[in-house]
């Protein structure tokens, strides 16, 4: 059996990317949600067995998020310069090794360090997969593909808490990381034989990795790109505020079992996945940015309601669970559209653009989880306050920074892009502009 090493994107006879390839890329990115959600029900057990504080256990999540944030600025430009396939395989290999180390970790310090390195490795899959999608489509078409990919990615938050809760019936928390090692091994083998190279040599950035890194300057001076990056990043931070605190709030305050918490978290993620599929259909009728704004407005209103309810310290968990469900579901309208619109002008730097966007998300997510540990878990108010504040900031970034350019500003920006993003041929630029 031979591996797939073609340099041409895999498409159907109609010119559309194979859905199977996009779903497989989603399976690669599922390592992120799995690595986060799978072991959340084990937080109290890890704290007890390793004699660690609540804040230090949450640092294992922070370390993973920081690794994801730092790994993406490396993997993105690398994939723009040498292609997508090799960085993805390297990342999966390192992730496998770190999963084994985590399974045998003797202390909380090693656990935090190994989680950081596991995050760096996982970043290669996240950034490269997003770059591959942009290799194959642009604009609304990319939003549809990203919605399809999130169908698989969203299975991570749905299944991980449930699987984690059930695994803890059979094994200790170390068994959770052995499970991740097995998943990584399966994905590595599948990727080696089934994922082609989607970025041909003639579409890669010239001048090597150094030139690819210089494209960061173009990205961070693009008001609209920064607006979309902050919109997604702040929403991502709101979700991780929920992720970091929910296991303590649900189990510590409302006394849910690990299994019941897993079901509650899975229902929230199911709402997000359902909304991504609705979004995949709606982008055929409505502009991606309009759908994104609707999603952020819903999240902001849900955050405000959640904060108001949390201050009353309700006796039933349902008062907390319902606005959390609405907030998490709204992500399905925000993330695919935000990523697609942010990368629309950067066909040759899609890996770098996706990496910078992903890094900003995980920096914010890591900061929120670290701060959540300081807020305590005696009430749901810290969690609700972070969610309300971050969703409001996300809406502000979208309305202020990501607003469309005037005709003159658009022409000036196009001249900058042509200097750093020379088109493969003129028809490609025209097609992407229409998308």
UniProtKB/TrEMBL annotation:
Pfam family, any one: MFS_1
Residue stretches making up the Major facilitator superfamily (MFS) profile domain: 21-406
Topology versus the membrane: Multi-pass membrane protein
Compartments it resides in: Cell membrane
InterPro entries attached to this UniProt entry: Efflux_drug-R_Bcr/CmlA, MFS, MFS_dom, MFS_trans_sf, Sugar_transporter_CS, Tet-R_TetA/multi-R_MdtG-like
Keywords (A to Z) from UniProt: Cell membrane, Membrane, Transmembrane, Transmembrane helix, Transport
Taxonomy, superkingdom: Bacteria
Ranges annotated as spanning the membrane: 21-43, 55-75, 87-104, 110-133, 145-164, 176-195, 224-248, 260-279, 291-310, 316-334, 354-374, 380-401
PANTHER family: MAJOR FACILITATOR SUPERFAMILY, POLYAMINE TRANSPORTER 2-RELATED
The family this protein is said to belong to: Belongs to the major facilitator superfamily. Bcr/CmlA family. Belongs to the major facilitator superfamily. TCR/Tet family.
Protein name as annotated: Multidrug effflux MFS transporter
Organism of derivation: Fodinicola feengrottensis
């Amino acid at each position: 059996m031979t591996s797939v090493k073609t340099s041409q994107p895999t498409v159907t006879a109609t010119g559309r990317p194979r859905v199977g390839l996009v779903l497989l890329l989603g399976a690669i990115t599922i390592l992120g949600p799995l690595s986060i959600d799978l072991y959340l029900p084990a937080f109290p057990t890890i704290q007890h067995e390793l004699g660690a504080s609540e804040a230090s256990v949450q640092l294992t999540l922070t370390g993973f998020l920081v690794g994801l944030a730092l790994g993406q600025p490396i993997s993105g430009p690398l994939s723009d310069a040498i292609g997508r396939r090799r960085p993805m395989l390297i990342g999966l290999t390192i992730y496998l090794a770190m999963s084994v180390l985590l399974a045998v970790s003797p202390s909380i310090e090693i656990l935090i360090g190994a989680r950081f390195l596991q995050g760096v490795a996982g970043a290669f899959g996240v950034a490269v997969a997003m770059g591959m999608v942009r290799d194959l489509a642009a604009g609304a078409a990319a939003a549809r593909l990203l919605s399809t990919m999130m169908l698989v990615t969203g299975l991570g938050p749905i299944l991980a808490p449930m699987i984690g809760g059930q695994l803890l019936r059979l094994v200790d928390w170390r068994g959770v990381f052995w499970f991740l090692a097995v998943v990584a091994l399966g994905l590595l083998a599948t990727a080696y034989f089934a994922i082609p190279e989607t970025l041909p040599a003639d579409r890669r950035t010239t001048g090597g990795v150094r030139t690819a890194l210089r494209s960061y300057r173009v990205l961070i001076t693009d008001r609209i790109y920064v607006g979309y990056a902050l919109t997604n990043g702040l929403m991502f931070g709101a979700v991780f505020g929920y992720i970091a605190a929910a296991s303590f709030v649900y189990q510590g305050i409302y006394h849910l079992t690990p299994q019941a918490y897993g079901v509650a978290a899975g229902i929230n993620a199911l709402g997000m996945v359902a909304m991504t599929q609705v979004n995949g259909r709606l982008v055929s009728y409505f502009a991606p940015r309009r759908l994104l704004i609707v999603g952020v407005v819903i999240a902001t209103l849900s955050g405000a309601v959640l904060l108001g309810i949390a201050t009353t310290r309700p006796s039933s968990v349902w008062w907390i669970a319902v606005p959390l469900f609405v907030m998490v579901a709204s992500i399905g309208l925000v993330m695919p559209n935000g990523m697609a619109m942010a990368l629309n002008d950067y066909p040759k730097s899609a890996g770098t653009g996706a990496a910078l966007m992903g890094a900003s998300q995980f920096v914010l997510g890591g900061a929120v989880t670290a701060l959540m540990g300081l807020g305590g878990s005696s009430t749901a108010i810290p969690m609700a306050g972070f969610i309300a504040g971050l969703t409001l900031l996300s809406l502000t970034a979208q309305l202020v920074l990501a607003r469309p350019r005037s005709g003159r500003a658009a022409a000036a920006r196009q001249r900058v892009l042509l200097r750093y993003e020379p088109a493969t041929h003129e028809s490609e630029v025209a097609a992407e502009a229409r998308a």
